[in-house]
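Contributing new records

If you add data, match the layout below exactly. Sequence lines come first and carry their own label; structure lines follow with theirs. Keep one chain per record. Anything else will be rejected by the validation script.
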Amino acid sequence: MSLLSLTTGFAGEYNIVINKPDGTQIETGWFKNLITDIGLDRLAVDRPIVNARVGTGMSTPSVLNTALDAQIASSAAAANFSAVNSGAPNYTSTITQSFAFAQGAVVGNITEIGIGWATTGATLFSRALILDNLGFPISLTITAIDQLTVYYRLIVVPPLADITGTVNISSTPYNYTGRIGIVGSFFNDSNFFSSSGSFLALMNTNAALFSTYGAGATLGAITSSPTAPNSSNMNVSASYSTYTAGTYYRDTTANLTVLQGNVTGGIQALYVPLAGTSSRFQYRFDTPVPKDNTKTFSMTFRSSWNRV
């Protein structure tokens, strides 16, 4: 049985800038996108944001979209990005990337925009009709001497509320509380644009840093970590479940050997890294779980995500 999910929320916005040779500039301002179902699926397995695409389609964006209606050009992400965490009270991370189209690469009237993990095909993370500052669909005219730049910002919303549940360990039920930790570092980095691998799984499969806390442990604030009279930090073996499309969660199992995680009085709290971020999730059992050098310990954690 898995410990309950701590659910991460995702949203996104576009801004389109057209630079003219005379130095003038046309800018749409930021407008919202719709993250697709296959885009949410992609978060489970690999980075979703690699290319921006523009087209001439006019259909209403749908979570079932897999490509633009009528794509005319695409551009790979530029090397630069910015990542900012808003801090209290929401601790939302905003990661911004730019996509510069070569001069002359886009000529004509564009009405739709998307980003995805390839230049073509059913690989669309998000789609939107191009909107003006009042939220109405518009057509942007681009000539051969104009230069188009698309900006995309991914907004990552951390789970700030505690969760509670019960898990059975060796046929004994243990009530627990889950809480995020080090929330100020939650996805405050470039992984969605520059790295490969699952971002929403708990722990990496290779040398995942994992911490156990002994009897008397308490959960820290969302900006901190658990505290206890004694603790143990280690790299553990971790394995991912097979992802099922449309479920938007990923299970990760940590396996501690007889020599790992042994703390005085049994394990009362756990501190578990989230792949792709320096933030972690912390869990506390109401009653310590017995663990010493005669016992192994295996626990499955669930990380889930959705649109916000």
